[in-house]
UniProtKB/TrEMBL annotation:
Sorted UniProt keywords: Amino-acid biosynthesis, Aromatic amino acid biosynthesis, Isomerase, Tryptophan biosynthesis
UniProt keyword Lyase present: no
Family: Belongs to the TrpF family.
Pfam families: PRAI
InterPro entries found in the cross-reference section: Aldolase_TIM, PRAI_dom, RibuloseP-bd_barrel, TrpF_fam
Gene: trpF
MF annotations from Gene Ontology: isomerase activity
The protein's name in its UniProt record: N-(5'-phosphoribosyl)anthranilate isomerase
Amino acid sequence: MSGNARRAARIKICGLRDAATIRAMGSLEVDEIGFVFAKSRRQVEPETAASLIEEVKQMNQPLGGAPKTVGVFVGASLEQLRELLAIAPLDVVQLHGDEGPELCAAIRDEFGKEVWKVFSVSGDDAAGTGHDRLLPYEGRIDAALIDTAGGGTGQTFGWEVIPRYAASAKTIGVPLYVAGGLHPGNASELLEQYEVDGVDVSSGVETDGVKDIEKIRAFVERVKA
């Protein structure tokens, strides 16, 4: 690898709800596929997720292996996770609420799943002072994700804070994903300006609230280029 080359960011496509779209994504270089269990217009039931996870396992990725499956939760208890994971065998539990380090560690220990923690970025974080929120999670999470406050807004946050969060993620030894308002039109801009480990997109690859395979394909091509 040359001194100017860098590894392409990982791609997570979130909010999948139908098997047809997953099948159409089979030839794309997607690293993670997310299912939303929190209250949302993209919410899926555990039984539906279980069948969709089976579809993901059949995907023929260009580099081999199937994408990881990620469940998005807000404020779920250990008991709720226990019941859901018994039905839908996810690879990753993504926590989008106010879950603390102790709960993250408990989920990792009990279920043996990767735990990703989402940190919302608001205007108050413009100076980058909030990035130290990652530090108490050292050894308790497997990835950090920063998103626009409120989540699922389709709006970007001030990207100038990314380097500070990236430094904190590096300190605790986890990859940093960026979400919030990403789409095929701005993915290249983000990755040209900032070095991040992964990107997470949902509404930015939809048309009228439905996943659009052409937009997904365009997003993947822009990120992996």
